[in-house]
Amino acid sequence: MAPKILADEKKKSSSKKKNDAAKENNNKIWSEARKEIIPLSVGAIALVASSSVNQAVPRLMGVLMDPSKSSTSSASNTTCSNNTTERQFVIQILWLSLAGGTATISSFSPAAIGVILKDDVDTVANTVTNTLANLLRSSSSVIFGTYNMLCINPQLVGLSVVVAPVVGTLAFMTRKYLKKIVTKQQQAAIQSASFVEERLNHIAMVKTSNRELDEVEKYSQIQDDCVELGQKASLASGLSMGIMFGLSSTAFCGILLAGRRAVQAQKMTTGQLTSFGTYSFMLALGTAGIVKALGEYGKGMQCAARLYNLIHADAKDENQQIHSEKEEIKEDDRRPVDTDLVHKISVENVTFSYKADPSNVILKDLSFNLSRGEVVALVGANGSGKSTIASLLAGMYRPQSGEISLYPNSTADDTPQPLSYARDVNRRDQVNLVQVVPQAPALFNMTILDNIRYSRSDASEEDVITAMKSANCTFVSTLDDGLDYLVGRNGIRLSGGQRQRIGLARAFLADPVFLVLDEPTSAMDVEGETALKDTMKACRSSNRGLLVITHKAKTLEYCDRILVLHDGKLVQEGTMEDLQKDKDGEFVALMSDLE
Ligand SMILES: Nc1ncnc2c1ncn2[C@@H]1O[C@H](COP(=O)(O)OP(=O)(O)OP(=O)(O)O)[C@@H](O)[C@H]1O
């Protein structure tokens, strides 16, 4: 098949998909609106009534200003008749105002479309209430106005028909420009929401990298851009309204001028001209109202699409406890720690449960330690609490009881007091003390360079390249943009193993005293496992403590010590050789399952 035909078919199918989605959203909105069918119908009828009632006012004014119609031969009769007309006018106006007011009040109908995202819900709710009401009101203004104008002076209507397309075209062009700016503004708002969503999803990463302030600053910048666009949009909106008002007023004056000539030529009365002028003004307002209501309807559709997507998205509550434990975003005032002096991190009688399920105690009176230059493995069945330990070491949670302590080097004549990791160490030092690389590292929709730099924003490109070498990130050189390669949301444009390597490089860049790797090679190939062995060696030689959570037997061969976890308790600890000797022990049972 020719490429052009293929492209056409692709275009057709994509536009069909778009139409189907729009139809689906349309149906959803109207099915929601159907739930309010009675108040909406009453409102719609009342609106038409209110509008028709309002339409009678100019006609009555015309009658009032045009006494000749009701004049009789005698002067006294004329005065009497004039008085009667005025009285009738006042009574009729009173009735009309009362009827119009009542109809307008009853046209108010609250819609029951849930309360999820205030702005979007408001816009969608407005689509089936206010926007629809405005459309009805404006349409009836146009229909009744045109009809009455035709009754009064069809020639003058002809002139309006000539002027209307010119005004309409100019109005359409200004609205189109306005729509373009508003679309940009909406895109900026979506970008801002997606930035927040991504940061909240990876709140643990943001927190443990001590990057809250940076993120707040970035968010403020995005917000500033949104405000700037908002200002442009409101300026454009003001201009558009001004231009439309100017054009319609000019057209209105032109029609009045032509009408005046018709009065002078005795083709119509002053009263008829007054009525005609008022109707043409209403007609202009009605036309503008229709254009506006149709624009709002389109906007309502866009909001509905977002809203329905959100309603069907899965709720994410995994970070609940992190949020609730989140401290205020400010530089905390705990004294800095000389991380170079820290020699050992020690988990002491720690008991922990997640707030989401407090009855499920995950870690039970757990104690172990990790010294600098040591490579320790943590093994255990699925759900035994290994990743929870990593989260506690990263400072994401605090134990309910027990302590995580840091032991400085002791000198010959001084034994320094241990520091509480949670109470005594400030966030910046925590980043330098412990870095955790989770199974699926959090990656942001940024370049590889920025993702790696996330753990140390002031790192030079050379430092990043060194960290990448340690994490064996050779794949980066094969990418077109290299370090500038955009990884996509959650690193979607990278493979699982590549994401793990980026996470590893990020941890190395922070140059922590202790490194925790949570199943570092779960998604890596054989080359990745070799890189892990190199990492282990490097940790020993650089006097870094390494805790590796693993299910791989091969990895254990290179560890100094192995901790065996069972249901949140430490049940065995020792070298691989020692543990293998205990044939009834948990380790031997686990080994039979390990790869
Ligand atoms: N955010 C959380 N809220 C509530 N419970 C959680 C949360 N995270 C983990 N758990 C529970 O804690 C227990 C231990 O989970 P953890 O991830 O620490 O186990 P694991 O040993 O790392 O498992 P695996 O080997 O499968 O990775 C599990 O029962 C899990 O359901």
From TrEMBL:
It comes from the Eukaryota. One of its GO terms (biological process) is oligopeptide export from mitochondrion. Pfam families: ABC_membrane (PF00664), ABC_tran (PF00005). It is found in: Membrane. Residues 1-26 are annotated as: Disordered. Keywords: ATP-binding, Hydrolase, Membrane, Nucleotide-binding, Transmembrane, Transmembrane helix. It is a multi-pass membrane protein. Residues 119-299 form the ABC transmembrane type-1 domain. The chain crosses the membrane at residues 156-174, 239-259, 271-291. GO terms for cellular component: mitochondrial inner membrane. Residues 345-592 form the ABC transporter domain. GO terms for molecular function: ABC-type oligopeptide transporter activity; ATP binding; ATP hydrolysis activity. This is p-loop containing nucleoside triphosphate hydrolase protein. It comes from Fragilariopsis cylindrus CCMP1102. Its main location: membrane.
